[in-house]
User: Which sequence fits this backbone?
């Protein structure tokens, strides 16, 4: 798979994981410390993939 | 936010706790959502479709293996994916019934069972509920005898919902199988509310067919479902086409008639496949989900006048309650009538009850965390307190 396409899906999939985290914590979305760490990891994955994608354009 | 300028983004599951009776166990897993992103295009399963050109034979992605695993999941010999449980009912009814034959359903059968029987030009005969709203094996036996006596021939099939859509009461499947088999009548186990949320062992039950709903209980996109059967009935229900074109002499030998060839050719089956590892794990958590269901129902029943129309304690996460003597009393004089209740729930971030209904209504707590379970239970009590009902 082209690295750019790989990073595209990586970002989409990371944001999907974040979407599910919002579902799991609805309606108040009060994240526990573990959930906050998880959310940060997910966002870093998405940012990393998007940065690589941007560099490769 | 709109898609294509007109379709609002659905954020129900992200924004609210959704207790909708038929939506709870069909919510997608993260993996199913990813599968939809990657496989949403029409015939996306067909990239590497090779001879013999049939969905359940495709190895990349591993659709063939999934079919084997699906059969093992419900402990049957063969499985096919279908566009919903309803198409599985239809396939079985059309395979077994001749015009005018009788097919037994129950007094709480889903409407699609009626339609499946009608599509096969057969006649529906209903097994009545007992005084606890349960279908018993004895009642099934009695109905088979009645039908045989009245029509001169036995019914060709019994369709039994393990848990029904109306009360989500647990019916006597083993007793019904025993009764049906005494008269050599096959039984279809309708697991629309069980397959994917609790363990189902078709062989242990003695079922001839096991049907599940992907979008109802298998965390899969709609429409999707599963039809599983035994070696004995596979040759009938999964028979292949014998037709030949009179002009072209074309034949399509491997295609299965009742499946109309391939069934789920895109994101739906990949969504099912992607959720499957989660299903295998989550069925072991069923008892915990039933505990959560009872926690919420106990809170509802703690409000004076409320009662459960479903069997209680609950054995399922779907429940029908009667709040005629509590929330409906408020609705009678409230300017918003029954919608006051929906307003109060929505204000607390809870949706999914039938908007405006304050007499009898259903809720399903499947999939909620303990935090969400307690939150929902407290919300009902809070609303009752606000209107001096408790």
Assistant:
């Amino acid at each position: 798979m082209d690295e750019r396409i790989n990073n595209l899906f990586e970002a989409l999939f990371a944001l999907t994981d974040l979407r599910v985290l919002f579902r799991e914590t609805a309606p108040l979305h009060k994240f526990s410390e573990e959930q906050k760490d998880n959310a940060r990891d997910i966002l870093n994955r998405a940012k990393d993939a998007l940065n690589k994608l941007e560099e490769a354009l | 936010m709109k898609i294509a300028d007109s379709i609002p983004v659905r954020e129900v599951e992200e924004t609210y706790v959704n207790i909708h009776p038929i939506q709870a166990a069909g919510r997608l897993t993260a993996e199913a959502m990813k599968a939809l992103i990657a496989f949403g295009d029409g015939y996306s399963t067909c990239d590497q479709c090779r001879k013999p050109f049939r969905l359940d034979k495709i190895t990349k992605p591993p659709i063939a293996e999934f079919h084997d695993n699906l059969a093992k999941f419900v402990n049957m010999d063969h499985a096919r994916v279908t566009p919903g449980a309803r198409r599985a009912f239809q396939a079985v009814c059309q395979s077994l019934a001749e015009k005018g034959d009788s097919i037994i359903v129950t007094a709480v059968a889903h409407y699609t069972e009626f339609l499946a029987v009608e599509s096969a030009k057969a006649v529906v005969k209903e097994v009545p509920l007992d005084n606890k709203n349960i279908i018993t094996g004895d009642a099934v036996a009695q109905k088979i005898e009645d039908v045989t006596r009245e029509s001169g021939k036995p019914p060709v099939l019994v369709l039994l919902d393990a848990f029904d859509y109306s009360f989500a009461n647990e019916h006597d499947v083993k007793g019904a199988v025993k009764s049906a088999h005494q008269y050599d009548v096959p039984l279809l186990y309708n697991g629309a509310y069980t397959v994917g949320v609790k363990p189902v062992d078709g062989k242990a039950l003695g079922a001839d067919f096991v049907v599940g709903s992907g979008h109802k209980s298998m965390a899969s996109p709609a429409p999707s479902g599963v039809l599983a059967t035994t070696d004995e009935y596979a040759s009938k229900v999964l028979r292949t086409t014998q037709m030949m074109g009179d002009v072209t002499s074309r034949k399509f030998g491997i295609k299965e008639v009742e499946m109309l060839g391939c069934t789920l050719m895109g994101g739906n089956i990949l969504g099912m496949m992607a959720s499957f590892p989660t299903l295998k794990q989550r069925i072991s958590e069923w008892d915990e989900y039933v505990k959560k269901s009872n926690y919420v129902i106990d809170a509802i029943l703690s409000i004076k006048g409320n009662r459960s129309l479903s069997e209680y304690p609950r054995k399922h996460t779907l429940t029908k309650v009667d709040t005629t003597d509590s929330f409906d009393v408020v609705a009678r004089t409230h300017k918003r009538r029954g919608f006051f209740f929906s307003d109060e729930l929505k204000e607390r971030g809870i949706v999914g009850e039938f908007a405006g209904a304050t007499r009898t209504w259903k809720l399903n707590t499947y999939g909620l965390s303990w935090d969400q379970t307690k939150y929902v239970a407290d919300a009902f009590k809070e609303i009752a307190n606000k209107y001096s009902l408790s």
Observations:
- Chain B has a mean pLDDT of 98.
